[in-house]
Design goal:
- Belongs to the bacterial solute-binding protein 5 family.
- It is found in: Cell envelope.
- InterPro entries: Peptide/Ni-bd, SBP_5, SBP_5_dom.
- Residues 106-471 form the Solute-binding protein family domain.
- The chain has 553 residues and is an alpha+beta fold.
- Helix content is 31%, strand content 21%.
- A hairpin with a 2-residue loop joins strand 7 (177-181) and strand 8 (184-188).
- 44% of the residues are buried.
Length: 553
Amino acid sequence: MVNCPTHSRLRNAPRATLPFIIFSLLLAVLAACGGSNTSTSSTNSQKANLAQQQVLNFPNVGINDLAVLDPAQGPDGNSAQAVNMIYSGLVKNDQNLKTLPDQATWQISSDQRVYTFKINPNVTFSDGTPVTAQTYVYTWTRSLLQATASPIASFFMAPIEGADAVANNKAKTLSGVKAIDDHTLQVTLTHPTPYFLSELSNSLFFPLNQKVIEKYGSQWTQHAAGNGLGTGPFMVKDWQHSKKMVLVPNPHYYGNKPKLTQINMLFVVNPATALQTYLAGQYDFMWNIPAELQVTVKDKPGFVRKPLLQSDLLFFDNTKEPFNKTAVRQAFAYATDKQTLVKDVFKDAVTVAPTIIPPGMPGYQPGYAGLPYDANKAKELLKSAYPDLNKVPKITFSYPSSQVSANEAAVLQSMWQSALGIQVKLDPVELSAYNDRTSKHEVQFGFTQWGADFPDPYDWLTLNLSSHASNNNGQWSNAQFDQIVKKAEQTSDQNARIQLYNQAEQIAVSDVGWLPIDHQALAAIISTWIHGLTMSGNGLYFGDWSNVYILQH
């Protein structure tokens, strides 16, 4: 058996220098030898510096409301801000996406197929309902049932024995997940899966309160206020749709208790409006600052920009003309001048993306050139498919207005018109409505952002570009790609897996299953009075919420 190391129970902390570590150890020794006044003094000093009002005003920038509160539905990045406060699971990620125990510790069998989790008996939902191993059996099975219509469960849970049978309505029981006793959960996989523990940090795997779901049925998340939806550090006190959500500490939380007494999560669609509201003192921090606005605030105290494990990409409806023709998709790829886009629109706040997978992720290919800008080649490819450009069907580029600025869309439109000699209509859409349209495959030519759920190429390629993947918005299908990623999923050697995923990614780029534009960075202004809020490759990072509080200012 392979045991989870006990030191991984430690809460994540910023990387420290060696002298600082030695100094810290010295202080610890002095304290252990009778210097208890130091600890008391530090605690008293912290209390003295705390603001009297521990209410965090949290702008959720880019939306007019939370779109998804059911983890099985694959929350978008904005919805995930609330989901990750309300729910928690067996494991969690630290700032560097390292997997740590949360509700459980684990053992792994010698053949790497059986995971045995020991669940903390103190874990309950925020209404006091106990969480048992059976709670996990219920939650994971529910996510796979066709009635739940989860767009992500069948792919995330594919390695679990019996998942396919439940997803295809051939079984109602998830055979690979068993409650051995109240606090022992056993999970059996069909084959060794190196990323399985990392996957469990996704909210899809977090326990749900069966009692609440059965009481309210399909509308259970609309009754979030006052009900024990999850096991996270906070619960919903009030949800005023299209305005704000108010969260308060979960009185039954098994972890360290938050110092914050309330979080006001305020929905604001327009980033420019959000920035002005922050500068007027109405928010405690600001994030999702667009590149064109960063120029004006980059010298403000607390401004920070961090590369994200996230890519901006374009997709095409492969089922209809003109984008069912590979040459047309390639023409648009060669017609997109990413260097100019990054320099003139993003002011070098992001990096050019020849690849789908960004730097910092396993499987990133730094030497791969992709399909570089070449206006002549673009025109040749388009004419090979449509010798008479007047016969090219009308093309509409739809995009979420909160993620693509009017300037960026206009620059892209101009590039395509200049290189290809055709007009592309622009269609800006509010994010929630846009996500609804993409899920129904109603977008002809669209934009998407993808960020790492866990550090493995499976999350980028198999989950999004396999022929039958629910996230495959353009319904791109390539038999060779499918064959290679399937082989990668059955390969336990990590180096061999990465090589296979490299091959698959090159197929996806050259056949334009996705057209990568840029690898993103996140800009934020974190006020000096906010303690414990930092950023990771996945965006805002709060870590241990007991360490997030407001200082006097």
